[in-house]
Design a protein that fits this description.
Blueprint: H1 3-25, H2 29-34, E1 40-48, E2 53-59, H3 62-71, E3 75-83, H4 84-96, E4 101-102, E5 106-108, H5 111-120, H6 128-140
Antiparallel strand pairs: 1-2, 1-3, 2-5, 4-5
């Protein structure tokens, strides 16, 4: 077997494994592709200064998001209207780009991760508070 054929077989195996994982972990994908109005809500980004973590998430409405903010010690960086499928795609893309995701929705704050999120169109915000935190961390580093 020549090298190019082995590479093609390996690529198809990887694509098949990703497709299988996608359907296994996200079985309602067919609902998104068939339904005209898929499950929309709010996609958001939270930041924890204490743990230096960023959380990507999805909430059905503003009340759910406010409850999360009240129970957690996180700061809301930004939010926008979106679908739960956007969250899934963003997390999978970050994994493929090498960003380590902790406990399914969290990852360590880094400039690279935020740059990837901005490129993906994820709401990361440009608040003054976030900039102040980043400047503080850079001066202590």
């Amino acid at each position: 077997m020549n090298l190019s054929k082995a590479i093609l077989i390996n690529m198809f195996n990887l694509i098949f494994q990703k497709n299988f994982k996608f359907k296994r972990f996200f079985p309602c994908y067919e609902l998104f592709s068939k339904k005209k109005n898929s499950r929309t809500g709010i996609i958001y980004t939270l930041y924890s200064d204490k743990f230096n973590l960023i959380e990507l998430g999805f909430a059905k409405d503003n009340n759910t998001l406010e409850d999360k903010l009240n129970h957690k010690n996180f700061i809301l960086l930004d939010k926008k209207e979106g679908e739960i499928f956007d969250l899934f795609l963003s997390k999978e893309t970050l994994k493929l780009l090498g960003v380590e995701i902790i406990d399914n929705n969290y990852f360590n704050y880094s400039d690279i991760a935020l740059r990837h999120l901005k490129t993906l169109g994820w709401p990361i915000g440009t608040s003054l508070y976030k900039r102040r935190i980043i400047r503080k961390k850079l001066t202590y580093a």
